[in-house]
Amino acid sequence: MDSIDIFIYVAEGLVILGAIFAILMPLIKSFDNPSSLVKTGLAVVALGVVFFVAYSISDGDVLPKFAAEPFNLTPGMSKFVGGSLYTTYALFIIAIVGIVFTELNKAIK
């Protein structure tokens, strides 16, 4: 095991640690203001709804070359990836519309 492998493991650990802190610290801070938890819960539910719709419209078709080794892609995995991609596209479009709306609103005021 050389130093590159060690640094990769350290980087993975730091990413996991950062993700844990990014989730836990706002939750701990929001206990001071419980109404902010409602907003967070609504945002998580809205994200779940967007993913459910995207997952529902995605298909699970897998080409034979991807169903075999080394990919072993199943229709369920293909449907999940498609749903994730559609969710990403939808959130990107929502973000762009929000930015345009905000800028137009600021220009009018």
TrEMBL record:
The keyword Transmembrane helix applies. Keywords: Membrane, Transmembrane, Transmembrane helix. The chain crosses the membrane at residues 6-28, 40-57, 77-101. This is Uncharacterized protein. It comes from Cecembia rubra. The lineage of its organism: Bacteria, Pseudomonadati, Bacteroidota, Cytophagia, Cytophagales.
